[in-house]
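> example.struct
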């Protein structure tokens, strides 16, 4: 291929428009919006269940709709005995995200709508997935600890998650904080896991296959695994006074600093102010303000040294730690929220489907003969 005829190439599809979506907009200047609603307004003001409904239906629910939705989520929460058996059959040392990926694949076999691909069937599958990802995450965690699962189907999803860790009713402020975190993580346009789900969905594979694909993409440290890596970094730094030296040493080695930079946001992640506020609140409640101070100092140093701003993961990591959520569950928790966005995108893709099939730029040998 001549240089003149060589097509444009953007590594990592940076800046490439790969589809249309009405669900979510990530704008470099205006921030994150779900169906037109700014995340800074949505996240702290309404329950996650309302946000999940919005993502699936395009409008916020009225009183009757959210009551019915809550009923359907509660009915979907319990796990069949066979599903509990699947979780118990897995190795105790299996990583939480690997367990979740396996569990979601197994959940397909317990769904009465498996094999149906119309919009209404996909909507019913979405409700079950939104409910059951929380159930399998907390059940799997308990089983790996050698304990029996405890699933309170009548609690909102954030409360069910916290209750499922130890069987104790969580304080209301903890539920509210986690509910806000779920809202912040629920959707983020064509991120890696969502795009992966849409690619799978575009082949007309079923909803569960698409969500399993998304979970696989989410697991990586450059996507959902970043918040776990960020907490490891914060623990290593230890105090705000050590942050600048730590950053300069890492930058000198050309190491990646977790929790900073974003492909779209160039002047800061619009979700960060809400999460930063949560860290300030939770830190004050539990008497551990040092984590906020470290994050703020890292923010200052990275902007000065590299012109980079914090993303959501930097502040989310210590909030989850202070909520006493095991760090191993940080990424599965992310999935419990993002599944609402994944399902919305799968339905949107299949409702207006065209198989996603990009081209590659060939860099191999020229035509040869044997």
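> example.seq
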């Amino acid at each position: 291929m001549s240089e003149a005829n060589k097509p444009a190439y953007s590594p990592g599809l940076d800046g490439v428009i790969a589809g249309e979506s009405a669900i979510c907009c990530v704008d470099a200047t205006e921030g994150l919006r779900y169906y037109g609603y700014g995340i800074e307004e949505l996240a702290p003001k309404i329950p996650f269940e309302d946000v999940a409904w919005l993502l699936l239906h395009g409008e916020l629910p009225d009183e009757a709709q959210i009551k019915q939705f809550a009923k359907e989520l509660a009915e979907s929460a319990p796990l069949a005995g066979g599903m509990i058996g699947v979780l118990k059959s897995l190795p105790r040392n299996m990583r939480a995200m690997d367990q979740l990926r396996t569990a979601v694949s197994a959940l397909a076999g317990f769904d009465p709508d498996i094999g149906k691909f119309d919009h209404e069937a996909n909507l019913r599958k979405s409700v079950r997935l939104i409910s059951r990802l929380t159930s399998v995450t907390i059940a799997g965690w308990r089983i790996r600890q050698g304990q029996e699962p405890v699933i309170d189907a009548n609690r909102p999803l954030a409360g069910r998650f916290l209750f499922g860790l130890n069987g104790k009713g969580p304080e209301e402020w903890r539920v509210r904080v986690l509910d806000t975190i779920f809202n912040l993580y629920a959707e983020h346009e064509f991120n890696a896991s969502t795009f992966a789900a849409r690619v799978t969905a575009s082949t007309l594979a079923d909803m569960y296959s698409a969500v399993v694909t998304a979970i696989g993409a989410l697991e990586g440290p450059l996507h959902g695994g970043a918040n776990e890596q960020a907490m490891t970094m914060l623990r290593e730094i230890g105090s705000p006074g050590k942050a600048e030296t730590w950053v300069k040493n890492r930058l000198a080695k050309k190491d990646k600093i977790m929790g900073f930079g974003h492909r779209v946001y160039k002047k800061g992640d619009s979700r960060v102010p809400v999460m930063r506020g949560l860290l300030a609140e939770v830190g004050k409640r539990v008497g551990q303000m040092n984590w906020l101070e470290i994050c703020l100092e890292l923010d200052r140093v990275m902007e000065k040294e590299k012109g980079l701003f914090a993303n959501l993961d930097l502040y989310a990591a210590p909030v989850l730690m202070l909520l006493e959520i095991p760090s191993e569950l940080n990424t599965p928790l992310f999935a419990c929220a993002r599944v609402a966005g994944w399902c919305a995108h799968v339905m949107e893709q299949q409702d207006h489907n065209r198989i996603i099939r990009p081209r590659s730029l060939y860099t191999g040998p020229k035509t040869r003969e044997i």
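> remarks
The chain has a mean pLDDT of 93.
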